[in-house]
Design a protein that fits this description.
Length: about 425
Amino acid sequence: MKNTIRQVFHSPKFVVGFCIFMAILLTMLVYPFINPGDPLKMIGLGTFAEPGTYVSMYDSVGAPFSTFKIPDADVKRLDKLLTQEDRAKMREWLELAQVDVSELDVGDMDSLLAMWKQHYDPEIRIPGMIKAVRNYYIRLNNSILSASVSDTLKVTDTDEATGETIEKTKISKTDYVNVDDVANVISLPLGTDNFGRDTLKQLVAACGVSISIGLIAGAVATALGLLLGLLAGYLGGWVDDFIMFFTNIFTVIPSFVLLILINYSINQDQRGAGTVALVIGLTSWVWTTRSVRSQVISLRNRDHVNLSRLSGHSLPRIILTDILPYIASYVMMAFILQVSSGILAEAQLSLLGLGPKTTEVPTLGLMMNWAMLYSAHLNGSWWAYFPVILVIALISFSLNLMNTGLDQVFNPTLRE
């Protein structure tokens, strides 16, 4: 046994796959302690907040200020203010105003602003330009002037007694707040989803649920396939014919189509993660049964099995002691593949809206479903779906790599 384990962990492919899978499991275990709470709790009032660290503006005003003179602060401020579309529009206006912009690079903020301040005049009427477009340029110019000319920002409030507007404080361009002095700061490495929920926290929880579904489905499919394969392969005769009759029927019917039909017939309120895992397992046993049967047929007439039979040993003892140990490695590889298939099957079902109920637990497939329903892929909210795809790919890749490594260890024809 020790020698077998040593051989397994000397397989580079198995070790790489094992390390990736363990890193995913370790993240699932540790992250909830770093960021506890309900992963389905809505913390954002909007949808698809971008990844980053968010500081409360309300608390920032009351926090103590420090003064810094950062070089090119205005240029950086304008660079953040002006989008690529705004810069293209500025170049377009200059071109329509018959300004030579042949050598102007919209990526060069200094040159663009210098030329804009030199030539732009709201009183100039560009032929064919409608009023709405002129107003856009006026607002754009006001934003540029406000960011580059104004030195302070006034914060005002309304006096409840008199109704007059009173000045509470002034914020200078050189005033900076230490993040540690702000009462409310939240870090969202993967932003929020369409419901305003922390995507990273949800992804970690969903990863755990999907792996659990895969493990349950893999265990059910492997156990059922192993039992039927052992009986069919060892007993033969009418038992073999009976089992293979139903196996062939399920082989003809695509398992995923059967999976869709069964899940569709189950009410969504009753479709929990455990139920979905059980259904996946009960529809995925066919190829394991056929493979185990083939292995057992090649073993049942071996000398040690015949000797055990002649000694009067019972059927369970012969199967458990004389046959099962010889196919244990194959069963383990089948289980790993069934886990991987179970995770992928859940993702496919949830993407079709037939996965676990959405109000109970998150899964990787449900996260993909939510991102698709709210058009995250169309509005550029990559953080709502790309990390999910990456995690699914990593889990599947690691499990299949582990299976390949085990195959190289236990299959003599594949050893180098």
